[in-house]
Amino acid sequence: MINHENERRQQVLGQISTMMSRRNILAAGGTSAMIAMVGSASLAQPAATEASPDLRTTSDTLRANARQAMIDIFRKKDPTVVDRYFAESFIQHDPNLADGLAGMRSFAAEVASSPATDITIYRTLVDGDFVLLHSRYEGVGRYAGPAIAFDLFRFKDGKIAEHWGGQESEAPPNLSGRTQVDGPTEVLDREKTEANRTLVRTYRETVMVSLRFDRIEEFIEGAHYAQHASKIGDGIARLRDRIASVAKEGGKLYLTPRRFVAEGNFVLVLSEGDLPSGPTALYDLFRVEHGKIVEHWDVLTPIPPPDQWKNPNGPF
To answer: What per-residue confidence (pLDDT) applies to 41?
Structure first.
């Protein structure tokens, strides 16, 4: 019995000694030991929100602000919209609109002057600081009827700092019965954004810039290619026919891609075009599925002569 008590006493003394040794080691380590402990804890914890904002949250905020700015202009006809959403150094690239906040105020006043103005936003993409809206305008006098529009905004410090825009009069359904705005709207496959951007960039440069029409099938899913362009129907064959008709008229396609905006399964290409009809800003929106282009929407906007531009910034 005594032996057992002695053994137990020795165990307790050993534990106390070990605890004291650890305390001495920590004290000897001083600040370095504390830094090591804090460092290990910080690695295990997520970064503070203020230091590294969640990218999805930021994207959602930009998406909501771009949409609300246009809704307030078209539906609420609110004269304070421009000052709330647009930066003081705002740059306008749409050649039909004057530069700066004054130009946006003038456009907002024009929209407000008509009680019939409205906007329906069908698609919204967020790519870093850029937000793209694919919409249908109604009741704006300058368009002489409903118009299909792409509006590209660049944000800085929470406000719209720059805008590019293209509009086209609404047309009847095309040969396949599709309109310029119907079809899927949900952004999917965000993890494939860069792969899809690369696919569309390569397609644009290979087929439409280098004119390698023999390679279309490498990029487009021919059996299920849905076409929303007003003068073309579904499928690769009709796309080829359209290109051939342009060539037959003595024209050629000279395209220079200027911007690629992508989110998930959608990729927009903004191109400068020298077409038979004249200088054109081409907004082409593609939907990608399983590594192939499966759907296309567009707006082709004539570029007026430079001496008729209402701002000096150029359309691209």
So the answer is: 31
Judge whether 97 lies within some domain.
Answer: yes
Instruction: Take residue 192 and report the two structure tokens written for it.
Output: 């494939």
DSSP H helix total and E strand total for the chain: 6, 10
| 46: in domain | no
| CA distance linking residue 129 with residue 63, whole number of Å | 10
Q: Which of 300, 180, 284 is CA-nearest to residue 229?
A: 180
Q: Is 108 within 8 Å of 82 (Cβ atoms)? A: yes
**Exposure class string for 141-178: b at 16+ Cβ within 10 A, else e:** eebeebbbbbbbbbbeeebbbbbbbbbbebeeebeeeb
Domain span at residue 106 reads 55-170
Structure-token pair, residue 2: 């005594």
Return the pLDDT at 268: 98
How many residues make up the chain in this entry? 316
Between CA 66 and CA 132, with CA 125 as vertex, the angle to 5 degrees is 55
Tokens encoding 267: 């990729």
Min mean pLDDT across 125-129, 173-177, 236-240 is at 236-240
pLDDT at position 252: 61
CATH label of the domain that carries residue 294 = 3.10.450.50
Nearest to 299, CA basis, from 176, 150, 153: 150
Taking only the tens place, the pLDDT of each residue in 2-22 is: 344 444 444 444 444 444 343
Cβ atoms within 10 A of the Cβ of 256, count? 11
* Per-residue pLDDT tens over the stretch 255-297: 899 999 999 999 999 999 988 889 999 999 999 999 999 999 9
The residue type at 252? K
Sign of CA dihedral 175, 181, 185, 190: positive
